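hi!! sorry for the late reply, been swamped w classes. u asked for the two structures so here they r. pasted raw, havent cleaned anything up. first the sequence of the first protein and right below it the tokens
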Amino acid sequence: MTFKTLFLLCLLTINAQASIYWEPVDTKSELTLRVDLRVLLDFKGGIWQMKMAKAIGSSEFQLMAADDMSCQPGLISTEIGPNAKFESKELLCGLLTHDGEATLWWNQGAQYLGFKHGEHYGWLKVELKNDAWHILEYAYEECKGAAILSGAKSGGAICSSVVAIERVTSNLTNLNQLDFRVRFDEAVIGVDVMDFILNATVNNASIIKLIGSNDIYTVTVNTGTGDGNLQLNLIDNGTISNGNLPLKASFTEGEIYNIDKTPPNTTINSKPPTSNNKKDAHFEFSADEAFSYECKLDLANFDICNQSIDYYNLNYGLHKFEVRAIDKAGNVDLTPASYEWNIVTPPPPPKKPDIIIDDGKVVGKVEGDKDSPVVLNNVEVLESAEVSNVIISGTIKNAGIIKDVSLDADTRIEGGKVAAKIEGDKDSPAILNHVEVQKSAQLSNVILEQNVILPSDITLIDVELRGASVNGGRLEGKIRVTGSATVIKNVILAKNTSIAGGRLAGKIQGDKDSPAVLQHLVVEPKSQLTNVIIADGVEIPKNINLGIGVRFTTIENIPTGVDLTNTLPKIDSNIDLSADPVVNGKGILAAINRIPEFVASKLTIKQHDTGYVYLDIEGIRYAVNPLQVQATSKSANLQLSIGQTVYFQTSTNIEILAQPAVQAPAALETALSNLNLPTVRITEAGNIQVPATEKMWYSGRPDLVSKVIDQENSIGLINKDNLVALIFEDELGQKREQTLYPAPANMSVLLEVADADDILQGRLDYQVIQGDKPSNPEIEIRKNNDNFLIIYPDGTQQKGSYYE
């Protein structure tokens, strides 16, 4: 029990309810009591004027009677009756402002006077001796709603309290049900589920059941859906007691569970070729969040593995490797990363060439036999000569055409033409210099020097570009650029292609399911990239067109100011915020919900099936269309701009521009169609355009909010205070109302007008008329008393009126 220094003002009558006024005094450590007004006590037929006082250091209180006495600060009476004398003592006096209730009852000849302030109680034990009331005991209870017992000891009765609300399992968990242990400081009764409340950032969490008795209870909760925090608190509603006294107070310091139900995403980073004759295999893998991994090969079961694994002496044939990550909460990747490859029976040893031609010159047509290979070593292919289906080695001086040949390790071809399929050695690629490559050719495992001319339909597999440039064609495997003059332009990239070094330009298209990886290269301005992963060391200009499927390996690889809008999938015309521009990211919407304003308020933004993002608070729905995403260096923040434009700035260096959303597009279209206005367009600025005739249309802008209204209202458009409002039914069957304000025909142009402040304080008309384009390209504002007319540079005209 905590005693508090109190000032008491008591007005009471026996057998009647009275008032008490008191106020704690923080500078004193002991209970100080005082009656500051006349007190009437009706006892045994006599009316007594009473006052109480306490001298600092005194061990006794007195109720004193007198015909007419007033309290004098600093004085206390040592006598009873009209002739009372006052001595100077260290009395406390002060203004008393709080009121409550007082009750009286008896116990073994002693009278207990109870008082109440708010939800807290105290009591005085008084006894009538020698025509004077003496206060024998006193106490102040901090516990809520304490009943003052006639048998209370000196110091008062103590109320029960909650000691702790504890987790039963570990902090980080993915369980659908969890237990909290609630501990009281003594046995209590009257505990039920209505005494508890969940503080949760997950969705749809609920309390399932309560068991326990005495001082220990267990509360089981459903953890709902999504990731977040879950805390159980006790909110006392007066039902809990120790059998005599109620609970002291609510308890809101319960331990917190961190709920993580999002499975990790596993990626295989290193693997064997899809087809090879090596019986050993090495895999490396990673995940966006992983505590451990499980691997399996072919028909075996998953087993624990590290971040890499090796298999030895495998059988020839098709094999399938799978790996799944497990995070700290126990979530298992439900779609394990997998890879299939074929270990082919190695070809028989190369047949010893039947013919080896060293040095010499080749004229005419020389065509080899695959079963009886011919090797040309250090020969000269003369003009008009054609060589095919042979093995070439050494240094070849070529003035003719070479096609469908294999190139031995470290072969070099100087000059001439090559065609069809040219295959070099993987470990020691051949070098081509001053060579013209013919249409539809396929080159693999070769080095192309600066003076190599490539056709627009070339296929390059695992090549090094040592100065040669590519314009058109298909690239596959590992493309390494070591020449500073090399430019790769307008190419298609096969599955899992990687490009390291050089410059990219034009249209670069990767594979949708297995995007190409770009690293340590420069992208030229105005280039267009789709379905590629941008890794370390890539220089990207601001004026670049990043298309669908472009992602980055890290946040740091996204240049500030780059527009990411077209890289992300769409829900209708809105950006799908479940996607993320970073590989293995948790999504833009998750980053929005980590903005400090939402975290502090424990609010959660969601994305509707129609694409807008929204926040519901007590019947009000805030909704915006996410229309643009770009990289930013701004701190995580939420900003509201002109026209209720919203900017979400996340800790992942992403800024989302969102405009107020029409929350029921279908209902709006239906309502307008009933007015013979069948066409509705939403502009990039978020405005509504409704064409009426060839040269007249209506311009509106949805309000940021809609509100729940009475169900009796009819769905459709209404006129409300000279504004148009849409009444619609939401997904829960509730009727809602959303205002559609008149909007400028061209807001950006209007804001550029230096003296437009007064215009912006008026109200525009919905109607917009397309007039002739004026000779003056600047916006014109014509004022007429209370009205104005805006003529935009394109001839569009819109009227308005000033506010009164």
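now the second protein. again sequence first, tokens right under
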Amino acid sequence: MPHHLTPAEAAPRLLHGRDAELSEISELVLSHPLVSLTGPGGVGKSSLADVVAGGVEEAFVDGVVMVRLAEVRPGAVLDAMSAAVELPRTGGGDRITALVRWLRPRRMLLVIDNCEHVLDEVAAILVPLLDDAAGGSERRAHVLATSRRLLGLVGEQAFHVAPLALPAAGDPPEGIAGSASAVLFVERARDRDRGFVVPEGQWSSLGELCRRLDGLPLALELAAGKASALGIPRLLARLEKDLDVVSRSSEGTSRLRSVEAVYDWSEQLLSERERTLLRRLSVFTGSFSIEAVDAVLGTSGTLGEWDDALTALVESSLVVRDHHHDRYRLLETVRQLAGERWEEGDASDEVRRRHASHYLTVAIRAGDGFKDGPEREWLEGLGPDEPNLRAALDHALHRDGTDRELAVQGLAAAANLPLYWWTRSQHREGFDRLRSALETAGDAAPTELRAAGLFGMAFLWAHDGDDWPTAAIYLREGIDLLGGAVAEPGETPILGYLLCLLGEAHAVGGDTREAVELTRRGRDLIARYRDPWGLAFAEWNVGFAAQCAGDLEGAERHYREMIHIQSAYGSRLELMIGHNSLGELAERRGDHEAAREHYVRGLDLRRNLGAIRLGYAHGSLPLSLLALARVSRALGDDAAARAYASESQAAATQMQDGPTADACARELMLLSAGPVRAELRRQGAGWVVGIGGESTVLADSKGLRHLHRLVTRPETPISATVLAGLADGAGRLGGDAGTVLDRRAVAEYRARLEALDAEIDEAAQDGHETRLRVAQDERDALIAELGRGTGLGGRLRVDKSDAERARINVTRTVREAIERIGADCPRLAEHLRASVKTGTWCAYHPTVAVSWNDDGGQEAP
């Protein structure tokens, strides 16, 4: 979820002579949706934005989020912004639309720093975000941008940041000493040498130096770094020659040239080796480690080859060292100027290639480490390198495709990162990177690597929008690359991975027979390799397929085997998934103590990983909390249940997860007002049904058995094949189906569903109940039609498949049972019509809190 400023970001920094500006900008930010700070490089725009953000943060209940675009290359703004605001998932739709929907209702300040090189990309996001006529939820987010140029958007409030106040010529020493530019200069000189003082008689020289530098903070800071060694008169004399041309330029050009001239003069004072290092360091984007300097710039193979030069650059204030994180960075203006002066021809091309290769290697190593566990170390380790990793992927996957070897390495890195992107909710960034890598590397990449890329695309797409039919298309493409499902495995277990995930897709769609066969085949293939993560992944998929087929004992065996494997090897992610799955099974069979134990363990692991939302099968933080609320209430621990439900509701609301927030509200209603009493229980050969004062006895039917199964497991999806199998006394049903739906058909279905989702959101925000109901009815009908027409992997169902027969029969028998109930218990029938959903998957989502007397929870035969 969007974060508040860190203490380091929020702590007010001393900005000399800026009190009036800070006050005025703060007022603008609070009263206008978009404020832009403009001015030349080095004038202090970023520092002002940081301090303003820290000062107004309390007015923004959803916090302040910083997006540093100085470290973002063109084309990657959407990736960086989505990651910064922690967009959970796009739902499979347009990324900008999803981002805007995520941001608009938040009372948040979005600080977008250094926009000038990506103005169009920033504007493409801000236009719909700030357009109050666009519909949807009310806009509450505000934006503070910094840029050398205006964004040019309607409603933009521009604030031009002027340089620091200058002493006038002829001012006395005390007047010069009190000017903002002189105060900054002296303070920065003392940062380098605590004994620095301005000798008597040199104040006028300092005043002239400040005027020569136009009061630009960056120019003053760079010059101050040399003051202790050279003294003010010599410093002024050295600068006057380089800055003489500036006095004949326009004001704006003069200020820009002041910074450039001081930079060039600072470079001249460096040794040739130090100057070479400074220019080559401009290849880095954002911060970097000293190990990266050795790897990217080292030529001799000697450890610490550049240490002396790097030390000199830090001492000259040209490179900044972050002591807390043990990393380095160049101020953005310095990085740009150093890069512009880097003219080494083939040498610079080689450095850029080595930079890309280094960070791609880092990504491959991190992907391997992520699977080995524990994941937290690798998550935190790769995070600071993300800007450089994005730059490396951009370089490797450049569309001209001339460096095929680097493109293949880019594909290898991207194919190794789906778990990282998944855990950080960066599904679409990963998907887009993988698609680009496959297109660029092409046939130059080994077949198994291309198949791994398709697996990653399918994995991320399915978990981003729960669009398993489209994911299955990518999976089948990967399987076909490898020779088909019955092919012999190659050097890697990727065929087993593809089969397991395709089995999960079939399980989600209700084709349990195919799901079981695919996942078992995949598990057997993976078992031939030393791949603990893959084997645990396969065991879960076999268990999930068994669970969907109604084989709960078999499912539990496989989930326990998954936990057994990772208890020895340490993947926290797979342990979390295993405990959650065992908790679900324990809750279903009424063992609430065991369920709570597993759910607590799963929640602890989820929090540790930061795995807030992982998609269809693996839930989210709100759903984990809601599960604990349910089992705590069942155990009579109402205080714990209320705490879990309240936390879940807050998290679901923050994540814009309406269904989970509604379920939390029902849970809290159960805990406070008490539920409506209802019954659906066996009595001899028939059933007693009723609610309140209404009651009747009905003869047995399949529909009543289906209803009993559903109402005793509220909020739990159950496949129609399982319901039909239980009602018939069969273990499970399965099914397959015919020809493939093309991507265009899938896209058309999804496009209409996206439009209906937007319509539902807007109607809900406006409180327009009729419009909301019409849109929801159309959406339900479209999903039902899609369910009737499609199976898994975009495959058309044949009319007589088991899965299709189960869907039709369960829907019909449930509706008939509700109509029979309605003859004597209209209130109960009305509740069931509103709360029971049927289709490929069926579920009971109670619209009001109901406590069911179900004969002790015994299963209906």
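hope this helps!! also noticed smth abt the second:
The mean pLDDT is 83.
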